[in-house]
Predict the 3D structure of the following.
Amino acid sequence: MSSLQRFLVLASVLGALSAAGVGAWARYVPAPGPLAGIRIDGVVLGANLRGLVEERVAALQGRRVRLVPPLGGPGFEPVEKTLGELGVEVDIDAVVRRVEGLGANADPWTRAELALAASRGQLDVPLLATVNASRVAAWLEPLKETADEAPVAARLDLEHRMVVPETNGRYLDTNGVVAALEALVWTRANDGVADLVVPVLAFPPRISSSYLAKLDVSHVVGSYETTFSRGGEQARRARNVEVASSRINGVVVGPGEALSFNEVVGARSEENGFKRAGEIFRGEMVEGVGGGTCQVASTLHAAAFFGGLDVIERLPHSRPSGYISMGLDATVVYPSVDLKLRNPYAFGVVIHAFVDKSGQRLKVELLGPAKPVEVSFTHTVIGGFPYNRKVVEDEAVSKATLKQRGIRGVQIRRVRTLVFTDGKRRQETSIDLYPPTQEIYRVPPGFDPLELPELPAL
């Protein structure tokens, strides 16, 4: 307050005193305690200070809000909550202390000014509400599960020599909701439910079309190929090989970036384009959705292995695969068992995965501006393990029938040698274990297992 304003207030007080007498001091210089006429959240204080604060807090927290999607944004069902449920909190003790202490330590003239303002209804103490961001995030989580979308990086369509544009991702903005709730707290309640439009923010993918337009893919950094069959029951497995390879084809791994096979290929489900086909599960051939995907992962792993990429997560199969050498295979199970690779180079690497014209050969190439390393690979068997036999009685068979051939377990030492163009050389050694594959016989009830051939010695 300026000096002139203070003078006018003082003149008003003195004028009132001269007209009303000395006893009027009680009106303009109040006794300690809450000022007469003071308001709390718009309501005049009566005799019960804490009771009024608690009442106003309850009214505030009980106001209802409907979280709704923005026009043209992601679709989700509106959610109706109270401000209290959404995390609006008030420190009741702090509000009480503020009301009680207002003007308590001020000089007489300032206290007189405050008393005059309170008596005129000009002094209103807000509730000092805050918004608990973690509670807001908890309420938004179910909406985010359906509304949030990851961005899709731009890809190279190498067959048609074109760039497939990127798609921005989006997410419900938790901080934006907190800010909107804070604004609601400072507005007076209206009848009915207030709509709060949940803000949605967009974010770009890591690889853009403009980046791909400048990408050099003139050299093969690493490559590998495997074969598969399309006849009879293998047709569905072949289809899975085509689907999985199409998902990784054209994917760009930027400098220093990591690639997750499971993240790129997605769930092995019929909704995601995969068929039911044979696959290895715990050492036994079974039928499952996505059988054949491991061949794509193995071929990619081998191409990356010979291209000098870092293999940061990889697990061999539970038994050697017929389509690839031991030590080069990679098993994947969505979402728990993954193949993860990292590009160690200063340039981006493009995955070119395709089935050739024969329809029975899968090839994976890693393309870039140069081939910075020559890679050689050896594996040595350092241990063997015998397999056991499982006998299953089956009324559908009349004689002992071999269901699954036993395969002895093998432990190998893998050695990858990398020779770089600058003359540097590095050697990496690791161990792979392929557990024994159980031999399985189906026999009629009552069959004596001793009649089966003896298990071979290791």
About this structure: Residues 3-20 form the longest helix (18 residues). The first strand starts at residue 39 and ends at 40.
